[in-house]
Structure formats: structure tokens, C-alpha cells
Amino acid sequence: MSVGFLLIHARPQRAWSAILSWFLFAAGLAAYLWVAQARHRENPEDRVTPTLAQMATGMYNAVMQPAEEDEAAPPAANFYDRLSHSMLWRDTRATSRRFLLSLALLIPAVLLGLHMGLFPYVGVFFLRFVLFFDKIVALSLLPILFIAFGIDELSKIMLIVIGVTPTIILDSFNLTRGVPPEQIVKAFTLGAGDFDVAYRVVLKQVAPRVLNSIRLNLKAVMLFLFAGEMIASTDGLAYRIALLRRHMGMDVIIPYVLWVALLLFLVDFAMRTVNRKLHPWFHEA
Amino acid sequence: MLIHIEDVFVAYGSPPRAVLAGINLEIEEGEFVCVLGQTGCGKSTLLRLILGSEHPMRGRILVDGREHHQPDRTRGYVPQKYSLFPDKTVLDNITFGCEVSEFGLFARLTPAFYRRRKQLRAEAFDYLQRIGLRSCDAKKYPDQLSGGMQQRVAIAQALMTKPRILLMDEAFSALDPGTRRGMQQLVRDLWKATGTTILFVTHNTDEALRLGTRVIVLAKESVDQGSRIAMDLSVPAPCGDEEIPSLVRRLELVSESCAL
């Protein structure tokens, strides 16, 4: 080997790349198991670091049993009935509903950004205000939202909207501005009207970049959603995590955290795949 | 008179610096006019004025007897870069003009649209052959084509809507010399076949002489003055290879002596 293996010109082999890229996962898992075992040897009642078996039981109960007794499925219920009444399913459904609702509310934000970038009057009307709104720390508005909208769904959705839409508006505004003026002039010389230019030329061109920008902001959506759920909610994944904290229910909290990460990864992956399928012409720079 | 430019003055920046001053120009239907000049002499500005994407500070520009305040279908446009829509295939790029001007946003959902699109696609295939692309290129996206091929498609796209004037802004300046010669031949042939009036902006004197029936040289007389038309040369027949070098020298002399 002529090139040192830690240097810029090093070329790791495939097998090595695979091993190295999974190493930290394995090390993390091993470290956890070791700590858990040590703590359980000292105190069999330890609740801070549940063993894998405890987590599996906790998760089995979460998947198979309802959170509250009165919601129980009839005793003779089959597997799917029990699943659909279970704690995990209900929490996931509640959180997903809020999540998807917030994503749907980002569509008008994208359209507003597009119009701001293309139509000068819309731009001057909204830009300064959106820039101002973008600087407000959304979480600091939470008490105001709870006072104004009550502690039900609306205030949580509003928190996400206020927290994320300014970013999305400004992003789509900038992406729209980034479309070369030649393209717009060309469309007009081919006989397009203003709205043809907006929706058939510019929106189609910025769509893959806008989707990417939404994808990067999923984390922020989740952050605001969890903040809202933890503070004021009666269901949802974050509500459950916050609730179980009081009982030190680490055997459910840890799997829940991993479940949320998995869900977010799947949403991100789905959006990436859809983006690639819808826009085969687009190559990320 | 197709294009009538009357005492046009344009300045940019603050404090304003004149770019074009006292431009008077008449262009007849069917002419092939090349606008020559050095970088920054305002030749692209002149083109954008005719296009309607910029407006003169003084003077008037009449196209077909009327002032235009924004670009529209009467004037086709082929810029140097970004001339094709990256999200559309070659075929869709060519048919886009006719589709968009005949069908509104929602009229695309009617069966009439699909019938018409079939016709348009057949016509587009015709153009594809005329500009020298193979039919297997129709399904490609612009960034899968070379620069020369992209400009060929851009010309076909502009000609599909049958504009009365075709405005080309340094359309071949990013191409290598070999490709360029082929493109010049193509434009000259299409001009003869369609009879479209063409205004071609270039900084290449050789190209201007090979293409145009008329060559206009824009040049500044002094640094703080706007460009004027320094020379208006009519080229009745395309120049032969042996005349070109001496003509090029003469024209470049005009363009440079004014700049001093």
C-alpha cells in the first residue's frame, strides 16, 4: 500500500467500508449491554438501563395491549383487532395525523414563496413580514398559542406552522429567484401567460429542490410537534415518552425513541424515492 | 417596416452610465441582421429592448407598428445559455410553445388536448430531423445532449410557434468552432426556408459576415458616451472565404477605433 490509510487519497475496500460504517452501531450496542448487565448485577430492580428482554416485553405490551383499560378490545378479538387498539398504534396514529396535517399546510407555503419570487407586488407585500416572522423563536410563542387556541390540536398544528413555514416560504422564494431569467423570457416568447410561467415552467423546475428543502425541514417539524405533544396532549408518541418518564419506564421509552427515528427515516426515504421518480431529469449538485 | 427603432437611449446604474444613445434603426421583414460589437457595448441590451424585457429611457421601439411592453409570441428568443427547460424532454421542449399558447392550465385535461398533442409531436419530429437530431434523441433531457445539440433544439423550439422575428443572443458563442460552422449553416438554411426575420447578436465578426444580409456595428465614441451605430453594412450575398479576412479586419478597425 503506497498511500497511508488515514490520508485523503486512501481508497477503502468495499468490505472494509461496510465493516467500518457499522462499527459505531455495534460498539454502541455492546457498550449499552455491558452497562445494563453490570447495573443489573448490582441491583436486579434497576430501571434506568433495561435489558433487551425487558425492552422486548415492554414493547410487546405496547404493541399488543391498550394504554387504558377501558379501551380494551373484546377478549375474543383477533390479532389485528388487538393491534389496532394497542398503545403504540394509537400513539403513532395520533402523531402521524398531526405530522401529515402540518406537511399539507406546507403546500400553501411553497406556493406563496413561488408567487413572491415571481410577482414583484406579492414579493414586496409579504417579504419583509415573512423575514420578521422567521426570526421569532416559535417555542417562545407556545404559551401564547395555548392561551389563544386552547390546548387542543389547533395550537399544536399552529406551532408547527409558525415554526416551519417561514423557512419553507423563504426557501421556495430563493429557489424561484434562482431560476435563470432566460427561462422566463423564453416561456413568454413561446406564448405562455403569467400563470403558465409560474406553474408549468418555474414550479416544475424548482419542485425537486423544494421537496429536498421540505425533507431537510422534517426534523424541525418533528421537533415542534414533539414539543407541543410533550407539554399538552392526551395521546401521541411524544406524550407517551413524557408520561413514561414519570414512571421511569425506560423499557418503553428507548424502543419508542428508536421507533420514531425509524419512522422519520422511512418518511425521508419515501420522499427521496418519490423525488427521484418524479424528476428523473434532476441531478443533485 | 417590421422593426422601427427611434432615437433610443438607455442608461444603467447610479449615477447612470449611458449604454445606448441615439440609436435609429429600421429592419425590414425577411432581413437577417447581425449586430456586432465588443463586450459591454450594449448589443444584448438592444436585443432585450426589441424583446420587450427591458424598456428604453427615451425613444420608441415599434415592432410591427406597435410598442410591446413584455415578451410575447411575435418574437422568438434563443439565448446563449439556459435556452431549454431542463425538466422537459427534447420533444416536450419543442412542442411546449404550441401547447401552452393553445391550451390553458386546465384545458390540458380535455381529450382535444391529447389529439392536438399528437399532431404537434409529429410536427416536432419533422423539425427534429431538419435540425439533424435522431428520433431516439426525442426522449432525452436537455442535459443529456451536447451544447450544440441543445442549441439546435432551442432553435427548433423557437421556430415551432412561427414567430415573425427570431432574436438570437450570442446563441453559438459557447460552442466549439467546428460545431459552430454547422450551426451557422443550419440557421442560414432555416432562414431561407421559413423567411423569418432574424436578429443575431454576436461578438464574432467572422460569424456575422457569414450569416447576415446586413451587419450592424455598435461602438462607443468615448468612454462616458453610449454606443451608437458605427457602421451599417449590407451583405447582398454570403461572403466567400477569400473576402472574409479583409472584411473582418476592416470591421474590427471600425469597432476598435470608436472605442478609443
Write the layout of secondary structure elements.
The complex is a heterodimer of chains A (285) and B (260).
Chain A: H1 14-42, H2 52-64, H3 79-84, H4 87-118, H5 120-135, H6 142-149, H7 153-177, H8 181-189, H9 194-216, H10 218-231, H11 237-246, H12 250-278
Chain B: E1 3-12, E2 17-27, E3 32-36, H1 43-51, E4 58-63, E5 75-78, H2 90-102, H3 111-130, H4 147-160, E6 165-169, H5 177-194, E7 197-202, H6 205-211, E8 214-220, E9 227-234, H7 244-259
Parallel strand pairs in B: 3-7, 3-8, 5-6, 6-7
Antiparallel strand pairs in B: 1-2, 1-4, 8-9
Explain what this protein looks like in three dimensions.
The complex is a heterodimer of chains A (285) and B (260). Chain A has 285 residues and is mainly α. Chain A folds into 2 domains: 11-48; 87-278, MetI-like fold. Helices cover 75% and strands 0% of the residues of chain A. Chain A contains 12 helices and no strands. In chain A, helix 4 crosses helix 9 and helix 10 crosses helix 11. In chain A, 28% of the residues are buried. The mean pLDDT of chain A is 88. Chain B is built from 7 helices and 9 strands; from the N terminus they run E-E-E-H-E-E-H-H-H-E-H-E-H-E-E-H. Chain B is an alpha/beta fold and 260 residues long. Chain B is globular and about 60 Å long. In chain B, the strands form 2 sheets. In chain B, strands 5-6-7-3-8-9 form a 6-stranded mixed beta sheet, with helices on both faces. In chain B, strands 2-1-4 form a 3-stranded antiparallel beta sheet, covered by helices on one side. In chain B, 40% of the residues are buried. In chain B, helix 2 (90-102) packs parallel to helix 4 (147-160). Chain B folds into 2 domains: 1-74 and 164-260, 3-Layer(aba) Sandwich (Rossmann fold), CATH 3.40.50.300; 84-162, no CATH class. Classes of the chains: A mainly alpha (285), B alpha/beta (260). Chains A and B meet through helix 8 and helix 9 of A and strand 5, helix 2 and helix 4 of B.
